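To close the section, here is one more complete example, presented without commentary so you can practise reading it yourself. The ligand is flavin-adenine dinucleotide.
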Amino acid sequence: MAAAADFLVIGGGIAGLSAAARLSRHGQVILLEAESALGYHSSGRSAAFYHFGLGNALVRGLTAWSRSFLETPPAGFSEAPVSTPKSALFIATAAMRADLDALHADMQRFTDTVLPIGPKKMAIAFPAIRLDGDDPIVAGLIDHGGRALDAAALLQGFARQAQTQGSVLVKHRLERLERSGPGWRATTEAGDSFTAPIVINAAGAWADHVAEMAGVSPIGLQPKRRTIIVFDPPAGMTVRDWPFIKTPGDVFYILPQGNRLLACPNDETDTAPCDVQPDEYDIALAAHRVEQFTTLQIPRITGKWAGLRSFLKDRTPVAGFAPDAPGFFWLAGQGGFGLQTSPALSAIAEALVTGSEWPEGMSELGVTAEAVSPARLI
Ligand SMILES: Cc1cc2nc3c(=O)[nH]c(=O)nc-3n(C[C@H](O)[C@H](O)[C@H](O)COP(=O)(O)OP(=O)(O)OC[C@H]3O[C@@H](n4cnc5c(N)ncnc54)[C@H](O)[C@@H]3O)c2cc1C
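Output:
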């Protein structure tokens, strides 16, 4: 098979699909995904929660801009809601107090829904919070603006939009990417070939690998493994309305999802791009942290998985044309915030790829083309 398009997107995770959805308004898009399912790697293994408790100021700006899309996506985007309200409770032991105060100041620049909350009210919101013992929780912040995201609904919604003027092809692993006239020729493992003047590199943990295939300078992307365990609350306990809980810094979070609980020890282990699996040590650490910060016991772990979060050295994502390769657009480094920032990053990709206006309201949030440019990394 051979086909030509206006835009070739590599990667069928949230980054590639959201960009393809936007670009399909401007021309023919072909998206190539190596696996047999969209979102098979990072996007399908996320905790899928929207909050301001992670990342730097630029990430918070992208998160704030994305909010209206995630609350009210365009008509027909998805039959199921792509997000539902769920509060976020940030907790601190005495030693974490200063970090909690710093987090509060950082979050206040982007949202006015974060308020200090005392131990009694924390215990009403999340009855299993550990308020006594050796190193109890002494302070908290509650954000009623948190949201549980539906990753599958987002992926499918973007895929549907992309297919209005294009093709989303799974089981199409890119094997070669080379110059073809003023544009690019992509050849898959099966020998199919696709040409386009512009290629969007949204290959997640493999984005540097795709650049190297094309003879483009890599940008130093580092995939890091993160682990989640799943367990049930004690019989008779209903947790579905409890908030998401997180400590400041990278220590712990727990997320009620339906009537089960997801817990994460916020591990960050450098890993080569791969189909990553959970490690026994991180599983045990997750269980230990549950008992450290809550009064919950885990008689049985009912599920576990690991996924890759890929970072650049400044932990800021990249969206922009490679300075050393015309027509080669980087869209990578979404770390642990790729779902909640996908509306903003795809709008940036659309603006830069098509030369259209910078998204309204983004500069006011401190998000500029320079800040996300790959030029800073090469
Ligand atoms: C445990 C965990 C919890 C998380 N929690 C949250 C959260 O609560 N909120 C949030 O916003 N984010 C969260 N994230 C982060 C989020 O999941 C990522 O930032 C996001 O999924 C990255 O999307 P992506 O499209 O760049 O990568 P991916 O989803 O990995 O997509 C890249 C795709 O490129 C494909 N590809 C690679 N090479 C090739 C090739 N040669 N040919 C064709 N295709 C190729 C891959 O198969 C893959 O499907 C979490 C991540 C993890 C692991």
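Once you have examined the tokens, check your reading against these statements. The mean pLDDT is 97. Residues 57-71 form the longest helix (15 residues).
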